């Protein structure tokens, strides 16, 4: 079982990194092979909208660190996408990642990518400062549906709330829940 975590935040040791890493830790304890990608360590540019990826089978013409994620996504069984809520939506890093999927995981857009239409399992992991778990639910449901349309098999959509005050490190129940979720992924 291979699981990759994508941390769509510039904060190296921030909440998104903590949440994704806890899930990966739980998965490793069950024998999964894991790898994580932090936006803070990567140079990933926004989609140029050139459509070159849909005009041939060359893939994305932007040769940056997204190529590492494309490669990892080919072999992985599960993708954990860690998305902080910024201004009521996924972070800009999360949106850059999502737009760059256009080149590889959008079989309905182009015949060239039919062979990539392998249904990948996905965990869409949101986190937010606000304590109200319902606040962004319509946006989260919409995002879930969007990833399903892109042929991802979204398994779980955990939403960690109330991250304005105190350190996430002190939330022992949350750590246990995240590790438990991670370990359950190892047996999907
Ligand atoms: C620019 C910015 C915008 C934010 N907007 C929201 C928001 O609209 N609603 C909310 O509940 N939290 C908001 N937050 C809080 C973050 O969602 C929260 O602190 C999150 O855990 C940050 O993750 P990180 O440490 O990985 O960056 C915002 C934080 C930042 C920096």
TrEMBL record:
The entry's keywords: Flavoprotein, FMN
Protein name according to UniProt: NADPH-dependent FMN reductase
One Pfam family recorded for the sequence: FMN_red
InterPro entries cross-referenced by the UniProt entry: Flavoprotein-like_sf, FMN_Rdtase-like_dom, ISF_SsuE-like
Domain called NADPH-dependent FMN reductase-like: residue spans: 1-107
GO MF, one annotated term: oxidoreductase activity
UniProt xrefs under Gene3D superfamilies: 3.40.50.360
């Amino acid at each position: 079982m291979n699981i990759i975590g994508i941390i769509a935040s510039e904060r190296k040791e921030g909440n998104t990194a903590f949440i994704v890493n806890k899930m990966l830790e739980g998965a490793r304890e069950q024998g999964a092979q894991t790898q994580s990608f932090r936006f803070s360590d990567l140079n990933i540019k926004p989609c140029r909208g050139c459509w070159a990826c849909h005009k041939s089978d060359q893939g994305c013409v932007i040769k940056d660190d997204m190529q590492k994620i494309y490669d990892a996504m080919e072999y992985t069984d599960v993708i954990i996408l860690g998305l902080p809520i910024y201004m009521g939506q996924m972070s800009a890093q999360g949106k850059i990642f999502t737009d760059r999927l256009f080149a590889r995981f959008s079989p309905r857009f182009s015949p060239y990518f039919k062979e990539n239409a392998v249904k990948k399992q996905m965990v869409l992991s949101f986190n937010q400062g606000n304590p109200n778990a319902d606040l962004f639910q319509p946006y989260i449901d919409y995002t879930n549906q969007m990833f399903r349309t892109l042929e991802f098999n979204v398994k779980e959509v955990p939403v960690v709330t109330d991250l304005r005050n105190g350190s996430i490190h002190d939330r022992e129940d949350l750590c246990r829940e995240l590790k438990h979720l991670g370990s359950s992924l190892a047996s999907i």
